[in-house]
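task queued by scheduler; priority normal; single chain, no ligands, no partner chains; default sampling; output format set to structure tokens
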Amino acid sequence: MALASLDLDFDDGLKHEGAVDSILLRRPCRVRLFRAFMDESCSCRIHDWFLVLSRQAVEILDISGFLTLPSSVFTCGRLTSLHLSYCAVPMLPRGFKGLPELRNLSLRRVDLQEHGQYQLEEIIATSPLLEELTLQDVNIPGEFKQRVIQGPNLGSLHLHSLDDHGWDLGDLPRLDSAVIDICDYLGNRDFSKFLSGLASLTELQISTYHQPVVCDYDYGMGQKFETNGEFQNAQCTDGMCAKLQFVDMTGIHLFTNEMSFIEVILSKARLLRTLSISLSHGAELAMSNEDGLKKLLNYKKASTHAEVIFAGCNVTRLFLPSEPGNA
């Protein structure tokens, strides 16, 4: 009896290219999943493999290894999940029509071509069903310019990077969860635009570890302010945090604009259930823990049910009772 489809998993390495040839090139059975760790020894064969996988309407492609992929990887137009790790990603082929069925895109420690942010933006824009996006330590050479992440169905976003690659959040009407882990300095951004891109968000994690010598603060997605420049809360409308319930901030230095960001979250997020603030370890803080806590406790809370964790301690009960009409 013929098999409906095959799952091919070579995660421990492709040691016998001939076996892959035998399965892909000589058997008519459709391959649903193809997972492999590759190296340069496979470079003369993978172009043909991707072409066959494309004709067989492969759905899940998970490739890792220290090699440069051929552009034929983007001919697999029926993909629902694409995971690339540790490899060099080629430019898009001519006539690229997008990945109309892609729901999960994960790029981890890959090297894009120069100005690859344009390429990445095009992949995202031509994947209208995309629900999960992970960009972790993606190397993009060349000058950084403002680029936009947007998608009608994107619900989960994970950004981790040592550098600012010019990403802004665009129209993300279904974004529910975001993890933003930016470890280096970021360029100036419109903070109100950043928050408006998170309007549908219920869970937000921000990690920011930047060097204590320069008193600037980034909000993980590109907002950078001088510490003596108060962020204007008036720029933020209540709708920007309308659905936000869980916020986790780590690596905080208690800079002025970090505190302003916290104030915005507390004062605008009416459904907030938990705000957790972890201080940076091994770096000089802008103020003492005691002064930071004192300032925090003066902020108004839009949600009377919000639990606030500061430096590992639950300080919820230390807040002053809300005045009638302000809760």
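post-processing summary
- The CA atoms of residues 270 and 303 lie 5 Å apart.
- The chain has six helices and 17 strands.
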